[in-house]
Amino acid sequence: MDWSLLIGLISLVAASVTAYFYLHSLVVQTRKEFRDNQPNLRITNLSAMNSVNVLTLYPEIENIGKGVAHDCVMTMDGWKGQFAAKKVYPPGPRFQRFQASIILGPDAPIRATARQEPNLRLRYRDRWGEEYECWYPIIQVRGETAPPYNVQIDLDHPGMAEPTPSFWEMRKFLRNTPLHD
């Protein structure tokens, strides 16, 4: 048996295992660093006020992630308005909760007619321009008096659409963009 062949094979296996563990730790570290710098907007509280036939909802929006959310817009199916904020900061020195007001009169589409799976939506971007969307299902409750429907928003079961960049895109984002605003 040729000893040089055996030594070469063992050296190749040892180098391959070392390279695998190095690359694996690099991938894990890059993904963790990327996830640690993502925003996470949520509606953390919801108040409602009913006056005659007008229902006013006050959702409280905050960023529970670690990155800044940019170009935030809140919309609701069956409501013609929207709430917008340029930047929503995570907990820290610039942290701020935003409270929107959604005024639903008796003629608001979501209160006047049944809608197919209506949602309250939050859309925003991270520092790299990647788009996120979070939605909360709205339940239309049939009432005995006018308007025919009242709304209830389920804050316990939000849906979420997040970007899924590749490892190389994450690495490019992290290397080419300063992490602090």
Task: Describe it.
- By secondary structure, the chain is an alpha+beta fold.
- The chain has helices at residues 3-36, 109-112, 167-176, and strands at 41-51, 54-63, 69-76, 83-88, 98-99, 102-104, 119-125, 131-142, 149-153, 159-161.
- Strands 3, 4, 7, 8, 9 and 10 form a six-stranded antiparallel β-sheet that branches. Strands 1, 2, 5 and 6 form a four-stranded antiparallel β-sheet that branches.
- Helix 1 (3-36) crosses helix 3.
- It is elongated, with a radius of gyration of 25 Å.
Question: What proportion of the residues form beta strands (DSSP E)?
Answer: 35-45%
Order of helices and strands: HEEEEEEHEEEEH
Number of strands: 10
List low-confidence stretches.
none
Most strands sheet: 6 strands, antiparallel
The radius of gyration over CA amounts to: 25 Å
Mean pLDDT: 90
How many DSSP H or I helices? 3
What is the terminal-to-terminal distance? 63 Å
Helix content: 25-40%
Which word captures the global form? elongated
Q: Structural class of the secondary elements? A: alpha+beta
Compile the SSE list and pairings.
Blueprint lengths: L2 H34 L4 E11 L2 E10 L5 E8 L6 E6 L9 E2 L2 E3 L4 H4 L6 E7 L5 E12 L6 E5 L5 E3 L5 H10 L5
Antiparallel strand pairs: 1-2, 2-5, 2-6, 3-4, 3-7, 7-8, 8-9, 8-10
Helix pairs in contact: 1-3
Give a quick precis of the structure.
The protein contains three helices and ten strands.
What characteristics describe this protein?
single chain, 181 residues, alpha+beta, 4-stranded antiparallel beta sheet, 10 strands
